[in-house]
Prior knowledge:
This protein is globular. The chain contains no helices and twelve strands. The protein starts with 9 loop residues before the first strand and ends in a 6-residue tail after the last strand. It has 124 residues and is mainly β.
Amino acid sequence: MPVVTAAEAVVHEMHGLRFVSYILPAHGSKELCAWRGEIPGGTVGPAHTITREEVFLVLSGTVRISIDGEASTLAPGDAAVAPAGSSLGVSNPTEEPATMWVTTSVGLEAVLADGSRISPPWVS
Length: 124
């Protein structure tokens, strides 16, 4: 049974956000990826289009998520799903840090507004 301890989680930082990845192909997963997203207060991540479905569960703090232009403010225990092909924006509108658990499938790419593509290392 593959187990990933907190000490084995891989940390990535991008766009002012911290991604602490636990489940990814490098740790034995063939289909799914999962990570803890840490969003400092006042951080606004860049809008992007996702190529795979993503699920978000807020663990602490407040997260503002916009999916195809429809924005919602999520509190701990709230969840959202962004369909493949949707435009996504994530931010923390407060001064306090926020964390969320995110799950998607292997191979997710993000397409930024300028057309550039990002293959996040925490999903490959």
